[in-house]
Amino acid sequence: MAGRAGSMGGDGGNTIEGGTYHDTVIQAHTVHYGHPERRPPRLLAPPPDVYVDRTAVFAELRRALDERGDASAPLVVVLTGLPGMGKTATALRWLHRLGPAFPGGHLQDDLAATGPLGPRDPLAVLERFVTELSGPHGDRPADLAGLAARYRSLTTDAPALVLLDNAVNPGQVRPLLPGHPASVVVVTSRFALTGLRASHPRTLTVRLDALDEASGAELLHAVAGGGVLDRPALTGVLDACAGLPLAVRIAGARVGELLENGEDLHALARELDDRRTRLEALAVPDDLSVAQVFDAVYAALPPGPARLYRALGLHPTPEFSRDLVRHVAAADDDVRALQRERLLEPAGEGRLRMHGLVHDHARTQALRPDGSVDTYAFVDTYVDWYVRRAAAVEWRTSERWRHGPLFTRPEELTDVFASAQEALDTFEADRANVVAVVELAHETGRYAQVWQLCEALRGFFFRRKYHTDWTAVCARGLAAARHGDDRLAVARMHLELAFAHADRDADGDMAIVREHYGHALREATAIAHARTVSSALEGLGLLDLRAGDPAAAANRFERAVAALEGVDHPRGRALLTFHLGRARSAEHRHEEAARLLLRARSLFAALPDRFNEAKALWQYARARLHADRTDEARKPLDEAAELIAACGAPKEEADILLLRGDVLAQQGEREAAEADWRRAAHLYGTLGNPLSAAARERLGTD
Predict the structure, then answer these.
(1) Pick from 589, 602, 685: which is nearest to 636 by CA?
(2) Which residues pair with 215 in a beta bridge?
(3) Is 130 exposed, middle or buried (0-12, 13-18, 19+ CB in 10 A)?
(4) SS3 helix, strand, coil % of the chain, rounded to 5?
């Protein structure tokens, strides 16, 4: 202020005398220096206008608040999950509910990397928070430690709420914890930030998963603003979004736009159903898209994880064996990097998966001209891996002869699984994958691998009875074999298709079975392949036996034995002895049948083949019952039940237990009989086999 201040008279008059004044002059009885009291900042973005689900998440957060007691440090909640999973929306929804109880301020900032830079420096966030808490005037420390101390001081008097979005590492979060111990800090991140628990034990990690179908439908209709998709279209849209809230919101916006314009909603459903157009459909022009969100994550990946990401996009399904992922990865660190980014997630013991839309994005990146992944090489890798895996299961479960080249090199198969049970149980998780790989191999012209996969899958499908998949795979195998010049492969695929339909035993199957066994016999005879001629005759004989013509069946089986003259095939001879024994039993030639079936049992035991040894004992017991020799049926059934229990063959185990229960009941051992029938009913039930009703009828529970 220029000039000279005058006197203030005691009568209350104020005068200013002389000089020139360029600044504001304050005249009053009393002058107060300083700044007006600042209202604590309220920086939280508005809560989402539409929000569904997460009831269990909010219950967990409420418990964490209720159980903290006399807090000695702020509660830190890490909301983690895939990009687009609604982490920020969930945080804002909860924090706005808590707002009135936290008078110390409501702070929010984004810790994500921007452009090519690394994660945001917490110093920049502290500068903003301190400014909001204390005003722009005055000095403040320039270093991180000093500024963090000032921040804690400014947040000491009352509990505050802090939302830290998109954190990349714990080091960003630690300096931003407020001073009042009753404060709450919510951190959203793709990463678990496990290091926070080491330095700050009051850290709760909450993972957000995909919305269920009901919540997805609620969110979609709310965003669409009215109008309801019919059930097929709604299901298709929700399946494509796979529970990702961002995707559901975008789909809802698209639906709302189509409704306003009177356009066909089913066109959107079709776009979303096609992997090639799905990501393009999940976009609002010039605003938001699912692909953009994943692009940002992908762009930050180092070269090794990025390569693995693209490679996994070429797998036909989004779930994989951990062993396969390691087989494809250049290094284990690449796998761990994708897991840290939530691009790969656990899917049960020994399994990993990608969210469906992440998998679509990975595939898109792999198919880009600059994707730097040899698409054909990786498809070969996947197909070859599954061929070897399936062959290892088949090698453990059956001693039958196979045409595929892998079976001539058993040393490549012996170390995959330790036992038949382990092979079957482990391969169970890959059932959908291997069917998809058969389709992929066929679509890409890998015909030799297709029929080899078909042949290798027989043991698994036969034991586990997935007939729909089995017959579909066999049909592909036959079509693939016809593309080559290997007539034996064609003959073997006819056998596989016939066997699969025979085992399914549905209406109309037997005509298909006879047709394909006939084709196999003609092809094998033309090229003089004795084993396949014998197998085709065996199959036709089984059809005769089923049709009630045991004499014709026995004739076929004897011709099949003759076809093996000079061929080292002990298993084939054992099977034909077994079938001939069944035919003789059906002809009421009981003693000959008993002799043949016991001979078959010995031949199977010598191989060894516990599965067929058990079946031979079961058929021997049946033959003894047909001969009215019930007293001779109990012991072989006991032996058969013990053998089959370790084979992973629920249908055959149920058959044996059902018959043993009948024998026990005839011998007056009702309690033991009911135990067998109950177990048989359960096993049949797991397979959807109608014989479950027969077992329950014996128990009197139908």
Answers:
(1) 602
(2) none
(3) buried
(4) 60, 5, 35
Buried b (16+ CB within 10 A) or exposed e, 382-401: bbbbbbebbbbbbbbbbbbb
* pLDDT tens column, 160-178: 999 999 999 999 999 999 9
Token digits of residue 643:
């053998």
Model confidence pLDDT, tens digit, residues 259-306? 888 787 778 888 998 888 999 999 988 788 999 999 989 998 999 999
pLDDT tens digits, residue range 452-461? 999 999 999 9
Q: Average pLDDT over the chain, rounded to whole?
A: 89
The 8-class DSSP code of residue 581 comes to H
Q: Tell me if residue 26 falls in helix, strand or coil.
A: coil
Report the pLDDT value the prediction gives residue 228, as an integer from 0 to 100: 66
- Could you say which DSSP state residue 405 is in? G
- pLDDT (tens digit, 9 = 90+) per residue, 368-422? 876 555 777 889 999 999 999 999 999 998 878 899 999 988 888 988 999 999 9
Centre a 10 Å sphere on the Cβ of residue 261 and count the other Cβ atoms it contains: 8
Q: How far apart are CA 505 and CA 236, in angstroms?
A: 33
Between CA 429 and CA 436, with CA 432 as vertex, the angle to 5 degrees is 140
How far is it, in rounded angstroms, from Cα 153 to Cα 37? 17
Q: Are 618 and 637 a contacting pair, CB within 8 Å?
A: yes
Three-state secondary structure readout of 309-354? HHHHHCCCCCEEEHHHHHHHCCCHHHHHHHHHCCCCEECCCCEEEC
516's tokens: 């394909």
Question: 193-252: per-residue pLDDT in tens?
Answer: 989 988 898 899 999 999 999 999 999 999 988 666 778 888 888 999 999 999 999 999
Coil/strand/helix, residue 361: helix
Whether 38 and 154 have beta carbons less than 8 Å apart is answered as no
- Interhelix angle 691-699/650-666, rounded to 10 degrees, is 30
Could you tell me the strand order of the sheet in which 75-80 lies? 106-110, 161-165, 184-189, 75-80, 203-207
* Structural contact between residues 385 and 327, judged by C-beta atoms closer than 8 angstroms: yes
CB count in 10 Å sphere of residue 676: 25
Residue 321 identity (one-letter amino acid): S
* Pair 105, 42: CB distance under 8 Å: yes
Beta strands in 178-223 (DSSP E): 184-189, 203-207
Whether residue 30 is predicted with pLDDT greater than 70 in this model: the reply is no
Query: What's the 3-state SS for 496-519?
Result: HHHHHHHHHCCCCHHHHHHHHHHH
3-class secondary structure, 430: coil
Contact 556, 533 (CB under 8 A): no
Gap between the terminal Cα atoms of the chain: 104
Cβ partners under 8 Å of residue 105, min gap 6: 40, 41, 42, 43, 132, 133, 155, 158, 160, 161
